[in-house]
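#lab-general

N.A. 3:47 PM
ok so I finally got the sequence cleaned up, no stray characters, all 336 residues accounted for. can someone with queue access submit it? mine expired

B.Y. 3:52 PM
send it over

N.A. 3:53 PM
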Amino acid sequence: MSNLAVNTAARPLGATGLVVSRIGLGLAALGRPGYINLGHGRDLAGARSVEALEARTFAVLDEAWRRGVRYFDAARSYGRAESFLAHWLARRGIVPDDVVVGSKWGYTYTAQWQVEAEVHEVKEHTVAVFERQWRESRERLGDHLDLYQIHSVTADGSVLHDQRLLAAIAQRKREGVRVGLTTSGPDQAAAIGRALDVELDGRRLFDSVQATWNLLERSAAPALAAAHAAGVGVIVKEALANGRLTDRNTDAGFTEQRARLQQQAQRLGITVDALALAAIVAQPWADVVLSGAATSEQLRSNTAALTWDDEAAARLAPLVEAPVAYWRRRAALAWT
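B.Y. 4:20 PM
back already:
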């Protein structure tokens, strides 16, 4: 197969009725002063005040908009991400019909704007937290809020069996907001499978699933393909493995993998990060893939011409890691 430009035209988000850009922007690295992406502290260059981060967020959002990004992802635990996004939407005069916004509940931000905080976020999937965070998200994002997701569902959690909570979520769905979930950990596929089986009043509850899939962690692919086939929207997060799939990864233990990535990126005439994103956009089950850019330069690189072919797929297949090993490495990343 010759080099193929990846199709980045907008497409439906499953059967939700929402139309999304193939590349979205996640605000995890923009809404708070610390995050686990490699080099995040250098990106902020010491400018970590609320005002500085809001200005940075506006700049990245403006660049994203210029480059055709129309899906934006926030969460209650991303510091002030929802507020920053809401302010930008208002000041740019962007109406709800022109953009798709998703947010998440289930973690509470606890770092008090400190990078060195002992605990950055606390997870709690209860009815009380859902109702509180729903009100907070709605107050900030208003009618722009299209999709509300349970943040980080795991296969061993009880959230998918809590009938009171599921009923509360279903009520929001009846009011017109699509509902979904995100997954984390080595058992993502099991969590997705269980979510697809959740029904209330004879209908599937969840409209979308957001999961980690990248060149290092591919274990969720069959479950995501099944979700897509069932009409569930599929959003892919951590496409760059928190910076491990970029030129910033100078880990000596990643030398061979880095050489493979650079060789294929050079052959296709793109950057390593664009290559990693292209691998996901090329998956037929992936509706939207999130960039986690913290600078306008990163956003431009992430959304450059995305090219992928069979040779890249074959040469990069050996990069895959065992899920347990991948998630162990992710858990060891430092907040900077």
